Amino acid sequence: MHFDRLRLRGFKSFVEETDFTISPGLTGVVGPNGCGKSNLVEALRWVMGENSARQMRSGAMDDVIFAGTSTRPPRSFAEVVVTLGNPDRTAPPAYNDSPMLEISRRIDREAGSTYRINGREVRARDVQLLFADIATGAHSTAIVSQGRIGQLINARPVDRRRILEEAAGITGLHSRRHESELRLRAAEQNLERVDDVMRELE
Ligand code: ATP
Description:
Belongs to the SMC family. The chain is an alpha+beta fold. It has helices at 37-47, 124-133, 148-153, 157-168, 171-201, and strands at residues 2-9, 18-21, 77-85, 100-108, 112-117, 120-122. The chain folds into two domains: 2-138, P-loop containing nucleotide triphosphate hydrolases (Rossmann fold, 3-Layer(aba) Sandwich), CATH 3.40.50; 170-202. A hairpin with a 3-residue loop joins β4 and β5. The longest helix has 31 residues, at 171-201. It is globular and about 75 Å long. Bound molecules: adenosine-5'-triphosphate.
């Protein structure tokens, strides 16, 4: 799978709809300081389900919405759409029928985010798991931000292991296992409660 296209609307400094075609091979983004290069990388993290305002260099999640300038009013929403090509059908089984996947996230002021995969509304979790399964994602090692190399060198073994697991594409499995364990624990507690009730009735 590969990233084919990135579209932004009202996201940080990208007030007008801006469409980037991502060609195969190496892509470089060049421009003067403050022109929005890092905002582009943040848009990618954001559409993959990043939910930490700090990772987005923002105070609050709504801060990703274009805040306005002296000549332009602020926007009421921000939207990022990423298109992934799936010509060799390597997408996770739930999405593998389609030759391409379109993942979008939209945030409306004070109303939170809506995610869609190929037009169908999904949970943030579904988008995060999709990207975890294809070994990329908001926290993926495929996105190297400033200062990250130094952090890796100084990382504790347990953190380094997490990075290797992300690269191996098994982070999604860990996350599903954790959810299943929580559900199992809740079911066990319910059973204990049923036992108590039955004992009282006997
Ligand atoms: P540098 O090379 O200095 O790291 P850069 O090209 O990576 O810069 P960014 O950090 O991506 O630039 O962009 C910063 C610009 O984005 C600033 O001009 C800032 O005002 C603008 N910006 C950030 N958030 C918003 C927002 N919510 N609304 C409008 N503009 C924003």
